[in-house]
Amino acid sequence: MKNKIILASKSKVRKEILIKNGIKCDVEPSNVDEDTVKISLIKAKATPEIISKNLAELKANKVSMKNPGEIVLGADSVIDLGGELISKPESRDEAFSILKKLNAKSHNLISSVCISKDASMIWNHTDKATLTMKEFSDKELTKYLNKISDENLYNYNVYQIEGEGRNLFKSIDGDKDTIMGLPVRKIKEYLETIK
Questions:
Q1: How many domains does the structure of the chain reveal?
Q2: 3-class DSSP state for residue 11?
């Protein structure tokens, strides 16, 4: 396995998953303008899977351009509610609206990863998990949001599956690492092939 990779993300959770799985990494956020890319892909009628994959690739390639010869990992996760793309909230009111949309429904969480070298994608993988939210009153949703810090709310969407967010769901079908934004098993399998 390659000794060290570059993670093109400022996500602490993604870095922790890599380290826990024995993958050393340096962190170099891509600072890609995700919203602009999403808007143009939605206009082009791209599926949530394509949007997630394209964003992961864009992040990896951008950081790879500045780091010749290095292995760079980009990642992106999106929520797909019946074809509607749900993005990270930018305010507590927006977070509440998102939870109301997801309330008592099933949605897919799609996580894509891309590995680039010399500004070109050399491998990618997309995985999906299905989560079904319990039914909550507005008061209960507000109480939940009051327990979540601003940093967690704006960085990790409206739920953190490894924390308070686990209690929102009656069923979760899929890989925990995929839900946390990094299907690490497939990444490890690929990295084992690189000498």
A1: 1
A2: coil
Residue 79 CB: number of other CB atoms within 10 A? 22
> For the packed helices 12-20 and 184-193, what is the interaxial angle rounded to 10 degrees?
60
Please state the separation of Cα 24 from the chain's center in Å: 20
pLDDT digits (tens, 9 = 90+) for 162-193: 777 888 999 999 998 998 889 999 999 999 99
Task: List pLDDT tens digits, range 33-73.
Answer: 988 999 999 999 999 999 999 999 999 999 999 999 999 99
CATH code for position 136 = 3.90.950.10
Residue 119 region by backbone torsions, left for phi larger than 0, else alpha for psi between -120 and 50, else beta: left
What is the average per-residue pLDDT within 109-117?
96
* 8 A C-beta contact, residue 1 and residue 67: no
- Domain containing 156 equals 4-193
Alpha-carbon span 162 to 179, nearest angstrom: 9
183 CB burial (10 A radius; 0-12, 13-18, 19+): buried
Residues carrying an active site annotation? 76
Residues paired with residue 136 on neighbouring β-strands, in sequence order: none
Q: What is the pLDDT of residues 15-39, one digit of tens each?
A: 999 999 999 999 999 999 988 999 9
As a three-state string, the secondary structure of 174-186 is CCHHHHCCCCHHH
